[in-house]
Design brief:
alpha+beta, OB fold (Dihydrolipoamide Acetyltransferase, E2P), 2 domains, 5-stranded mixed barrel, 5 strands
C-alpha cells in the first residue's frame, strides 16, 4: 500500500455531488474526527457501491498533492441504516444531529468517544425509538463528554415541576421509552421535545456551540 494511503473506518454525515464523477463525503472517524474527502463514483460502474447517508464503512484514504486534499477509494459498508430514510421524522432528527456534529467537531483532541456516540445515536435513529428523545440524549451526552456544565448549570435551570420527567427521560434506556400517543395533527409537543427545546436554548445562551435545530 502507498505510504500516503491508509484504511480507516468512517461514518458518513453528509454527501454532496461535486461533479459528474466525484462525491464529497463529510464524515467522522475515530482517529481524525470530522473530515471530508472526494470519492470517485460513476453510476455506470455497476460494481461500485454508492455511499448512503449515515453509512459506516471502511475506506482507503489517499492524501492528494493540493491543499492536503483527501481522495477516497474502495468504499466498503460495515453498517447501513436504511430505516432512517424511510420515515420523515426519523430522517429530520438524524439530519439535525449530523448537522450539529459537522458544525461543532472541527477540532477535537480525542474523537473516539464522540465517534462511538455518533454511531450509537444513528443506530437508534435506525430503530423504532422516538427520534426527539434520541436527539435529546445525544446532545446531553455530547455536552457531558465535552465537559460542559450540563449536569449542574443546565439542570438547575429546568423548572422544578419538569425535573422528575426530565430525569426519567435522560436516565431511562431507549428500549423502555415509548412514543407519546397523539393524533397526527396534535398541536401539543411531547415532553422530550419540550426538554430538547429547553436544552437547545441553554446551549445557545451558555456555550459557543453552533446549533440550528
Amino acid at each position: 500500500m502507498n505510504p500516503e494511503s491508509w484504511l480507516i473506518e468512517i461514518t458518513v454525515l453528509k454527501i454532496s455531488q461535486t461533479s459528474e464523477h466525484f462525491l464529497k463525503l463529510d464524515y467522522l472517524s475515530p482517529i481524525n474526527g470530522l473530515d471530508y474527502g472526494l470519492l470517485r463514483f460513476s453510476p455506470k460502474n455497476k460494481k461500485a457501491t454508492r455511499p448512503d447517508l449515515f453509512d459506516t464503512a471502511e475506506i482507503n484514504i489517499e492524501l492528494g498533492n493540493v491543499h492536503k486534499q483527501h481522495f477516497l477509494k474502495g468504499f466498503s459498508p460495515i453498517t447501513q441504516r436504511p430505516a432512517i430514510g424511510k420515515d420523515y421524522s426519523r430522517l429530520d432528527y438524524a439530519c439535525r444531529f449530523a448537522r450539529f456534529l459537522i458544525e461543532n467537531l472541527s477540532s477535537v483532541p480525542d474523537p473516539e468517544e464522540l465517534y462511538q456516540l455518533s454511531k450509537q445515536s444513528l443506530d437508534a435513529f435506525n430503530s423504532c425509538y422516538p427520534p426527539e428523545t434520541i436527539l435529546l440524549k445525544a446532545l446531553y451526552r455530547f455536552l457531558k463528554i465535552e465537559g460542559f456544565p450540563v449536569e449542574n448549570n443546565w439542570w438547575q435551570s429546568i423548572p422544578q415541576a419538569q425535573k422528575k420527567q426530565a430525569q426519567q427521560l435522560l436516565n431511562t434506556p431507549l428500549s423502555e421509552i415509548h412514543p407519546t400517543q397523539g393524533g397526527k395533527d396534535s398541536p401539543t409537543h411531547s415532553p422530550a421535545e419540550c426538554l430538547l427545546a429547553h436544552l437547545a436554548q441553554w446551549i445557545r445562551l451558555e456555550t459557543d456551540l453552533r446549533l440550528n435545530l
